[in-house]
Design brief:
The protein is of the alpha/beta class. The protein contains twelve helices and 17 strands. The N terminus is likely disordered. Bound molecules: alpha-L-rhamnopyranose. The site of alpha-L-rhamnopyranose has 12 residues, from helix 9.
Length: 370
C-alpha cells in the first residue's frame, strides 16, 4: 500500500495543518445539522489525531462534490456518541464513519441506521461486526500490539536495532537471552477502559508476553491505567506511574496518553522509558537517545490517509462498487488498490498499511507534517 505521508515528505510538501476544533461545538459536541451529509465521528472533539483524519476524509468527499461534516462528542463516551448518531440519522445524513468509544451500547442506534439505510463504516476503533459495513484499520492489530512490547523491552535494555538488517523479534530474543537482571515491568497508559482499538492492541501485547523468550525476564502482567484520551486525566495517570515507581517502561497506545506521559517523565527526568503511538509534532521535544528525553522512538501511521481511505470506502459502497464483503476490491485514488479482508472479530476490514517508526533522526521532519 502507498504511504502518502512518506510521498509528501519526499516531494517536500510539508505544510502545517490547522489543528482547530470544528465550529458548532456545544456541551454535547458538534450538533450542527447534517442532512445530506457524510458524517465523520471521532471519539471526541479536539483530538488532533481525529482532526487530521477528518482532513483526509473531507478532502476526498469535497473532491467528488459530496457534503461532509465532523460530528464528534465533547466527551469520550459511548453514550455521547449514541446521542449524536441518533441525531444524525434523524437529520437525514448519508453515511456515518465512526471511531468508537466502546464495543457495546450501540446496537439500538446502529439498528436504526440500518433501517433507515444509513451505512455505518468504522475507522480506527471498530464498530460491531453485526452492524458495520466494513472497518478501516490502520495496520495489522498484531503488528501494532507486538511491536510496542518489543520496543519497550529494547528501550529498557538500551539495545538498538536496525530494521533494515534484522527483525525486531530476533533482536529482542537475542537481547533477552543475554539478560539476567531483575524482571522487567511494563505499564500501559491507554485511552478508555472499553475502547475497542486500544483493547485489541493490549490483548496482543499480553499474548506477546506469553512467549517463551520473555519467561522470567519480562513480567507477563501489564500495569494498566486509563486516561480516557483526555489530557488532564492522562497526565494524572502518568504522574501515578511516576509516584508508584514500579514500571521500567510505559507503553501508551494513544496520542493523547503518550504526549501526557512524555511531558510528565521528561519534566521529572525519570529513567522510565516511554514508547507507543504518538504524533511527531506533539512528541518531538520528548524524543531522543539521551537522559534528557524519555522516548527513544515511537510509532503511528498516515492518519490523513486513514481518513481518506474511509471516505473512498464509503463512496465505493454508496456507489454500489462494494458491499463490504471479503475479497472485494476498490481503488482509493493514488493510494492504490485495496482488498477487503476478514478482521479479528470475524467482520471485514481494510488495512491501510504498515506503521511508521519515528526516531530522533526523522521526528523533526515528520513533525512538520503531523
Ligand atoms: C488517539 C486515539 C486513536 C488512536 C491513536 C493512536 O488519538 O485514541 O484511537 O488510534 O491515538
Amino acid at each position: 500500500m502507498k504511504k502518502n505521508l512518506k510521498k509528501a515528505m519526499a516531494m517536500g510538501l510539508a505544510t502545517t495543518m490547522a489543528l482547530a476544533a470544528p465550529a458548532a461545538v456545544s456541551a454535547a459536541g458538534n450538533t450542527s445539522d447534517v442532512s445530506g451529509s457524510h458524517v465523520f465521528m471521532f471519539k471526541s472533539v479536539g483530538n488532533a489525531f481525529g482532526v487530521i483524519m477528518y482532513e483526509g476524509f473531507s478532502s476526498y468527499m469535497e473532491q467528488v462534490g459530496e457534503n461532509c461534516t465532523e460530528k464528534s462528542p465533547a466527551e469520550t463516551t459511548v453514550a455521547a456518541q449514541v446521542q449524536l448518531i441518533d441525531e444524525a440519522i434523524t437529520q437525514g445524513c448519508k453515511s456515518i464513519s465512526i471511531s468508537t468509544n466502546g464495543d457495546t451500547g450501540f446496537d439500538e442506534v446502529f439498528a436504526k441506521a440500518q433501517e433507515k439505510g444509513v451505512p455505518i463504516v468504522s475507522v480506527d476503533s471498530s464498530a460491531s461486526a453485526d452492524y458495520r459495513v466494513t472497518h478501516n484499520n490502520q495496520a495489522s492489530t498484531e503488528d501494532i500490539g507486538a511491536m510496542q512490547v518489543r520496543a519497550a523491552v529494547l528501550q529498557v535494555l538500551g539495545v538498538a536495532y536496525d530494521p533494515e538488517d534484522v527483525t525486531m523479534e530476533k533482536t529482542v530474543e537475542a537481547a533477552l537471552a543475554d539478560y539476567d537482571g531483575d524482571e522487567i515491568r511494563l505499564g500501559v497508559l491507554s485511552a478508555g477502559i472499553d475502547t475497542p482499538v486500544q483493547n485489541g492492541w493490549i490483548a496482543v501485547m499480553e499474548q506477546e508476553l506469553q512467549k517463551d523468550i520473555y519467561k522470567g525476564k519480562v513480567s507477563p502482567e501489564l500495569n494498566k491505567k486509563y486516561g480516557d484520551d483526555e489530557a488532564t486525566k492522562s497526565t494524572t495517570q502518568a504522574q501515578a506511574f511516576l509516584a508508584e515507581n514500579n514500571v521500567d517502561a510505559i507503553i501508551s497506545p494513544t496520542t493523547v496518553g503518550i504526549a501526557a506521559a512524555g511531558e510528565v517523565l521528561t519534566q521529572a527526568k525519570s529513567d522510565i522509558k516511554l514508547t507507543g503511538l504518538g504524533l511527531p509534532s506533539e512528541m518531538q521535544e520528548y524524543t531522543g537517545d539521551d537522559d534528557a528525553h524519555s522516548c527513544p522512538y515511537f510509532y503511528l501511521w498516515d492518519m490523513e490517509g486513514l481518513g481518506k481511505l474511509s471516505a473512498y470506502a464509503t463512496m465505493a459502497l454508496v456507489k454500489g462498487d462494494i458491499t463490504g464483503a471479503v475479497d472485494e476490491t476498490f481503488t482509493a485514488g493514488d493510494m492504490g488498490e485495496y482488498t477487503i479482508t476478514t478482521a479479528d472479530d470475524e467482520g471485514t476490514e481494510i488495512v491501510l498499511g504498515e506503521p511508521l517508526q519515528f526516531t530522533p533522526d526523522n521526528v523533526a521532519d515528520y513533525a512538520k507534517l503531523y
